[in-house]
Amino acid sequence: MPALKALVAQLLGWTLAWALFVVLGQPIAPTLAMAVVQGGLAAGIGALLKSERWWIAIHLAFSPALVAALQLDLPPTFHLAVLAGLTLVFWTTFSGEVPLFLSSHATAEALLALLPERSAWHVVDLGAGTGALLRRLARERPDASFTGIEHAPFPYLAARWNARGLANFSVERSDIWRRRLDEMDLVYVFLSPRVMPRLWQKAQSEMRPGTLLVSSSFPVPDVVPERVVEVPDRRGTHLFCYRM
Question: What's the rounded Cα separation, in Å, for the pair 153 and 151?
């Protein structure tokens, strides 16, 4: 479990940081210096545990940010509000292995080029985030229908806002693994390398022959895509296209 790995990395990081300061004869106190050392150790342990890259960044920043906030003597309600906000935004990151990735404007243009002209295709974005990508597609292609699947509360609400006024764009708050794909012509995902084998199994068992699975940035291991689209954005995105 990603959350268990994170907890182990944090606890070991603090244990090693404490031991290091004892050996060096430094005061044992939750100072910013100790927090920075702990963050580096926790990040290293997370890397050894093969945690995803976003967890490494969280480990690096968590303890320094916590100590800095404590030194500012902020009210307890502030910390609770921050925790609640992060949980509502990064819901699937903490409960699973899928972070919040936002697709670029150039990715939307590349996806538009993959859609057949004048076709009533049904497109779904598994893990739609704020829905900005699908809003762009829905406005450009009123003949097609677009569905966004999002589980995290705040991104879901943002996606519902982005779907306003568009009859061909709907948003569902659901677990992506429970959403059937039988009626979809194109499935778009921007998830995580760790879940791609499971997603491929789901696609093979549920998608119809001839339909298209498009994965942003992360290919399906050991499966050759029908084509790879290079997206001209700052991220250097690649779209891996798999025909069922």
Answer: 6
